[in-house]
Amino acid sequence: MRSVIPDYLAEALGDVEPDTAGQLADYIPELAAADPERLGAVFATPDGEVYGAGDIDTEFTIQSISKPFAYALALADRDFGPVLAKVGVEPSGEAFNQISLESDTGRPFNPMINAGAITTHSLAGSEGMNPAERVERVVRGLSAFAGRPLRIDEAVCVSEMEHAHRNLAIAYMLRGYGILTEDPRAVVEGYIRQCSVLVTARDLAMMAATLANRGVNPLSGERVVREPVVRQVLSVMSTCGMYDAAGDWATQVGIPAKSGVAGGLIGALPGQIGIATFSPRLDAHGNSVRGVSLFERFSSDMGLHVM
Ligand code: DON
């Protein structure tokens, strides 16, 4: 049965390939220069089987797909109470780069939008870490999820920092509310470095499979985070992972998921599967157009909808 999976994946890719809807992210030159035709999909199982088709070893920046994993690291490093005190778990219903802070406390609605992710980055690692140590902790943690050492795309970092006005504004607001306690610029820089980690669709599938395998990387056998952390992360992915398209996603796909602006998309189902797709053209919500189509198909063909 398993040997038919690569053919199934190749057929699914062939069906969505002609769809050229959507736009590349163009707020920095590096993303605007991506090859829009790239297309890949990978399934990884909790017992370490990996099946892929298309562009599964092409590197691109992880971007917002880093958010659930950095949230996992913050929960693991600081525990639930201190993290929940600073970042909520409610869908914002707004775009990922909206300010979206609770009006009385300034607490970001959730860790998947930028406000929450910038805060989450500041909570990874231990309290006294300097910004470089924190980034190192995050890159090491993302690498443990992937099961191989990941590196940062420095050119993307430089460009992102030049266009980070909105994230800087959000971070200064967070500092004003006392949600951030460190230099806002340094935290945004760290968050951008986290988003600029290079991954392939294969890496993303392994990261998703580590969530599906309840915190243990299926290939390395390393326990990256504890089970309660995984449950928290998957819960927030299912309500907030697709931003203001979260409701459509929940009804049509029904898999905890996270998208990134470079075209990556992951989904994870505990005990079953980690899925990743890569296709750079995005819809109005910032989610990969062909990635969403592929997930709709996978969910329907394999009965993966959790509801
Ligand atoms: O914060 C930003 O704007 C980007 N570096 C990451 C945003 C992102 O991936 C949004 N997801 N679709």
TrEMBL record:
One of its GO terms (molecular function) is glutaminase activity. Substrate binds at S64, N114, E160, N167, Y191, Y243, V261. The keyword Hydrolase applies. It catalyses: L-glutamine + H2O = L-glutamate + NH4(+). Keywords: Acetylation, Hydrolase. GO terms for biological process: glutamate biosynthetic process; L-glutamine catabolic process. Signal peptide: none annotated. The keyword Hydrolase applies. Its EC number is 3.5.1.2. Belongs to the glutaminase family. Homotetramer. This is Glutaminase. The chain holds residues 1 to 307 of 424 of the full protein.
